[in-house]
Amino acid sequence: VVLGDPGPPDSLSLTPPAARWLPTQGAAELHRRYTVALGSPSPRQYPVDPPADAATLAAWKQFSQSTLGFLPRVSASEVPFWTDFLAHRYQQISALNSAWQSGFTSFEQIPLPPQLPSNPSILRDWFQFQGVVLPMRDNAHRFSVLLPVPQSEALDSAAHQRRMELAKRVIDLEKPAHTAYDMKFYWAFFRVGEGRLGEDSVLDFGSRAPRLLPPMVLGNAFVASSYLAPGFPEDLSDRQILGQQVLSQRNPGLTNPTGAVS
Whole-prediction pTM value? Predict the structure, then answer.
């Protein structure tokens, strides 16, 4: 998104799904959808400020995420970013006043809209600021570090800790001061939207390789990467457990008329 260029109202770099509302559809359409979502017999106005009632707040959050793709923010901490966004986009306050049909004398005078704007230009700017600029700011200057784990250290928690401490010292020395990061191992569970591709990739069973699923040991295991090991006699590989396994018939001559093993 080029913040210095207002562009047409539908010039978002990421096009929301067809079912979502767009500012080109107007504020009235969003109000109508909100009324339908609440099941209200009378028209309701979509509030950009989170409702105080717990039940309405839950419905507002669900509606906002599914229809807008974000939860609007109205806190004072967002105002400086709003001012910078408008200043980069319009460059001169006269250009903003012409688009907004307003009479501001400086960008610092412009507050975050306390309610959904009806003016198409203001509505577009508010939508792009809330749905694009703020998420970009939240994710900027952050990165993740994936530490490889050799097969020989798959079950060695002490080696994991040494590897992580060494990597942390190196990263703290080399990273830019304004950045933040997190670390996890290659086989970390519940990974979303990540890939492990590169020259050091190893073809294997992936995160669920048997070597990475050891029996759970209190204080020496990772949540969701271990399992509760069976106790005696279930842990014996040469025993069959009555009630859990079907006993095979080894000698037909030793069976009774019902077919059960004698």
Answer: 0.55
